[in-house]
Amino acid sequence: MGTGGRAIFRSKAPLRISFAGGGTDVSPYPEEKGGAVLNCTIDKFAYATLSVRDGAAGTTRVHSLDYNLSASYDRPEDLVYDGELDLVKAALKVLRPSGNGGSDAELELFLHSDAPPGTGLGSSSTMCVALVGAFQHYLKEPWTDYEVAELAYRIEREELGIRGGRQDQYAAAFGGFNFMEFHGRSTVVNPLRIHPDVLNELAYRLLLCYTGTSHYSNDIIERQQASYAQKRPDTVEALDATRRLAVAMKNELLRGRIDEMGRLLDEGWQLKKQFTEGISNPRIDAFYSAARAAGALGGKLVGAGGGGYILLFCDFERRANVAKAVAAAGGRVVDFALEPGGLRSWIVRPSGETVPAGAPGRVAAAPTGG
């Protein structure tokens, strides 16, 4: 993609790992009882490049490296949800300007991610946040991190109709280690000030492993929502306990009681499997059992369930043994580091000069509703 005669807006947003509370951010639970999630972002990203040429025909071209797809859309009527690049189409419907001559601009999008969809790291929501960040720079909108996250939520959950919670969009927008509280459409993000020594030890004790299978979270979440709506006791009690566990894990982490993380991760995984059927399966159970036998103190799938990545917490002397057991079980250990930053955007001038992102909206404002 060349720079001649074009303004280029780039953005990247970090993927996340969820430690506790996932599922309590999925409606209607937070509207009725309030949800709580503990998560942090990692040094794996979703990237979006928006190239704009004013005065050209209003065509939008999209290139997705993850899906090895390219497409062109000349008119709003071309943005039909048909299973191909639907997330991008939804973002274009919500974000593409129609006034001030914006509809006459030629847009070109290039998208790629460090982790493909279906792995449990929130890659779809993170890509949506990256898209919002690129358009924010283009449109010069003073959106706060809260507004960016809510806009990404609107695109994915309301416009496109993909089921899920709110933690992924907020993690990608804010970045870092956060304790998030969900009360209906109002969200509060509490950045945690964890001692660097505690973070270093935690990062050393964690293993992120790809199980070799992907998942489709929409079906699992739909079943979870139905089970909760029917007030099935096992589902309701598991979600209530999961919310309490997120608070307990946050407190233990702030106290520096690292070993408790392993026990609580295992407790959370046992609770998660009670949300609905399909969260685990024989392959995942065997994978987790092998890791535990080799020395993992606890762990959990980091997404809705069914496959993707599993996060393991290990005794420091047995971490290498756990990694070997994971490989023997058909998994793959993925190197990662904790990432303190959230959404970042910048501009590349036609000359190739890179302009730092002093963009509006990169400062978190007070918590707001959706």
Structure description:
The chain has eleven helices and 13 strands. It has helices at residues 29-32, 86-95, 123-139, 145-159, 167-174, 196-205, 217-229, 233-255, 259-272, 282-294, 319-328, and strands at 7-20, 35-53, 60-64, 69-73, 106-113, 177-183, 186-191, 206-210, 296-301, 309-314, 332-333, 344-348, 354-355. α3 (123-139) packs across α5, α8 (233-255) runs antiparallel to α9 and α10 packs antiparallel against α11. The two termini are 36 Å apart.
Report the radius of gyration as a whole number of Å: 21 Å
Quaternary assembly:
single chain
In percent terms, what proportion of residues is strand?
Answer: 15-25%
How many domains make up the coordinates? Answer: 2
Tell me the total number of β-strands.
13
**Element order: H for helix, E for strand:** EHEEEHEHHHEEHEHHHHEEHEEE
CATH topology of the largest domain: Ribosomal Protein S5, domain 2
Residue runs with pLDDT of under 50 for 5 or more positions = 359-370
Architecture of the largest domain, CATH level 2? Answer: 2-Layer Sandwich
Shape category: globular
User: How does the helix and strand content classify structurally?
Assistant: alpha+beta
Average pLDDT metric? 87
Question: What separation lies between the terminal Cα atoms?
Answer: 36 Å
Search tags:
single chain; 370 residues; alpha+beta; Alpha-Beta Plaits; 9-stranded mixed sheet; 13 strands; globular; disordered C terminus
Indicate the topology.
Blueprint: E1 7-20, H1 29-32, E2 35-53, E3 60-64, E4 69-73, H2 86-95, E5 106-113, H3 123-139, H4 145-159, H5 167-174, E6 177-183, E7 186-191, H6 196-205, E8 206-210, H7 217-229, H8 233-255, H9 259-272, H10 282-294, E9 296-301, E10 309-314, H11 319-328, E11 332-333, E12 344-348, E13 354-355
Parallel strand pairs: 3-5
Antiparallel strand pairs: 1-2, 1-12, 2-5, 2-6, 3-4, 6-7, 8-10, 8-11, 9-10, 12-13
